[in-house]
Amino acid sequence: MTKKKKIGLKYCGGCRAQYNRVAVVKQAQQTLKDLVEFISPESEEAECILVVSGCKTACADITPFAKRPICFIAGEEDAQVWVEEMQQTLSEGT
Question: Are 77 and 57 in contact (CB under 8 A)?
């Protein structure tokens, strides 16, 4: 069994959300269930941080995560691209 990549999940405040951020993450989680485990972004185990913003402003504070790779999702299309990239990248590592 392949070790899952631990990804810290950070949501924005949702003040101007233009799509259902939670539903998009749930779909990504279902698609990547064998490859990825979402954990708290504050966890030392987080290998990278996924910032899920409700709009293109992407104003979530990422200062605490500056020393780790950060990926951004600001819409459903971004999420789809990120999921496809993760599938390709992590499947190649198996």
Answer: no
**Which pLDDT score is estimated for 35?**
95
Q: Where are the domains of the chain?
A: 5-92
CA 19, CA 64: separation in Å to the nearest integer?
26
pLDDT attached to residue 66: 87
Q: Residue 58: what pLDDT?
A: 85
Q: pLDDT per residue over 1-13, tens digit each?
A: 568 999 999 999 8
Q: Show the tokens assigned to 68.
A: 């780790």
- For 5, the token pair is 């990549």
- 57 backbone dihedrals φ, ψ, rounded to 5°: -60, -35
What CATH number belongs to 5-92?
A: 3.40.50
Select from 47, 56, 45, 54 the least CA-distant residue to 11: 54
